[in-house]
Target: Carbohydrate binding family 6
Amino acid sequence: MPFVSRSVPPGARPRLLALCLCLSGATSVAQSQTPFGANGFPGVIKAQDFDQGGEGVAYHDSDAVNSPAYYRPNEAVDIGIRGSGTYEVRASPGEWLEYTVNVAQGGRYELALSYSLPSGTGEVRIGWDGANEVPVTLPATGGHGTFQSYKVPVPIDIPQGTHVLRLAFVGGDLYVRQLSSARLVGRAFYLSRSGAGAKDGSSWSQAFSADQLQATLNQTLQPGDTLYVAGGVYQSSTPFSFSLTTSGTDTLHKKVVGVDLGQGLPVFKGLWNPANPGASGKSHAFLRFTGAHYWDIERLSAENYYYGVRADTSSHLQLSELHLSQIREGLALSHVSDSRVSRSDARKYTKRGIRFIEDVSNLLVEDFLADATLGDPSWPTEAYPFGVSIENPADPTLPTHDVVFNRVTARNNTFTTTSTGDYQNGDGFSLERSAFGISFLNSAALDNTDGGWDDKSQAAYYENCVALRNKRNFRLWNDSAQPTTLNNVLSAFAQKHDGYSTAGLWSQGYVEVYDSTFYANAGSEILLENNSTPAARVKIVNSIATDATACGSVASKEGGTTLEWVNSRLCDGATATPVPLRAPRADWMGDPADAFNPADASVLQGYRPAP
Model:
C-alpha cells in the first residue's frame, strides 16, 4: 500500500524508542526509554520498538486499543507475548509502523522478517524515508505460534546516516517479532530477457541479456557477488540453462535471485516433451551443478526440462523457492553434501520428484511438494514414479546418509496398467537398503498407488508424519540391528489398487511405533511378513488401531513374525468396539488438524497433530 502522508515532518517529531520492559502481572509494565537512534544497520529491530509520536505519526493502527496491552499500553499498536517472554506485534492490513535507524556504513543490506502466519500468504511493504518501497510476499508458517525468518529477496541500497524505515502491512493475519539486517559484501549484477542499455549488468537499466547468462555466471560473478534475474518468460529455440562450474567460498557465496518486477518471477521454458520422456529435447537440465560449491539460488521457475536440477560432485548449495513443472525429474543429485533445498516444488513429473543417486549426505529438504500428476489423469507417468527416491549406489561404499526431510509432501505418484494381476507401483517415498541416517519430520504421503513410504533403509526415524490413501501407507523393511522408529504418525484409509495386500503398516523388518494411530485401512491395520531374515519384529506402544465401524482382525501375521502391543487401544475381533475419532474423513487433507484425535478426551493413546 502507498505510504500514509505525514502530518508532522520527520525532523519535527519525537522519535525516542521505548525499549526494555519488565512484566508484573498481566498488564503492569515498567518502561524505560533508549535515546534516539538506538536501532542500527546492521542489526535487529524489534517490532514492538517502533518510534514514539503516536497514531498517524509513528504508526497507524486500525483501532485505538492496544490488545492485550502487555507492553506500551498507552499506544494503540496491538502487542502480544509468548510464554518465552518474546513480544510480537499483531498486525492487520492497512496498518504501519516506523522506526528510526542509524546506518553505520552505507551499502546493500539484506533484510529478514521474523513472523507467523496461520494460512494463505501475507504481504508487507518495506520502505525508508517516505519512498523506496520493496513489496514482500510471505508464505504461511502454519500457526500464530510458529515463527520463521523470511529473507527479503531484493536487498536495499541505503546510504550512511539516519533514516526512517516503515513496515506497512498489506495483507494477511501477520504477527511480527523483528526485522534484522546484514550488510552484503560483493557486487550486484542484473539480468533480464532482452537486456537493456549498455548490457553491462550494472543496473536494471543496463541489464545483461539472457544470451549473456553463462558468461555472467562463471566468469563475471566472483565470490560474494549476486545476480538478480528479472521476472518474465525466458524461452528460446536453444533453451537457457544455468550451467554452474565455478564456486564461491565458505564466507562468500555466489548468489542468483529471481525478482518480480511486475511480471511475476522468471520462468525458463525448455523443449522436453512428456510424450517422449527419455529424450531431453536440448533441455537437459535447468540448473546444472558440476564441481560447483557455495551457490545460493532462489526464486526461479522452470518448465519442460529433463531435469529441473542436476548436481554432481558439488556441495554447500542453498536452493530455495524453485518451482519445477512438466519435467522428467525435479532434482537429481549425486556426490552432493552439506546442502539445503527449501520452499520448493516439483509438479507434473513423469519419473521422480527428488532423486538421490549416490553419495548424498548432510542434506536438508524442507517445505517441499512432490506431486506427480496434480490429480490430472491425463498427465503421463513412467514406470515407476516416485516422489522421493533414494537409490542403491553403483559403488556400495558411497551410500546416501544423514538426510532430513521436514515438511515434505509426496503425492499422486501413480502408475497403473490394464493387465489383470499386474502390480500397480508408484511410491511417495522410496528408499533402498544402503541408505542410513534418514529422518522424516512433519511429512506426508498421499494418494500413491503403492507405498506411501516404501522404506528399505537402515533404522530410519519418523516423527509427526501422515500417510493416507496409499496401498500400503507405511511399508518398512529395515534389516538393521536398530529399529526403524515411528513417533506420532497417522496411517489411515489405505486402499486397494490391485490384487496385492493392503495395510496401514506393512513390515518384514524391525520396527518400533509410539503414540500413533492406524485407522480404517483396507486389508489389515498391521501386516507382518516373513520373506527374509530377520522376520518382521514390530513393537507398538501407546497407540490406536481401529476400524471405522465393525471390528475385524487388527493384524495379520505370518509364522515367525513378532508383534507386541503395549498400552494401546485396539479394535480387534468381532466383539470389540471401534475407538471413536473426532472427524475422520477418507478425503482428509489436514483440515481440521485434530480430525483423527480420539473423540473421548480421556483416551491418551494415539496420534496428535504437531502444534
Remarks:
- The longest helix spans residues 213-220.
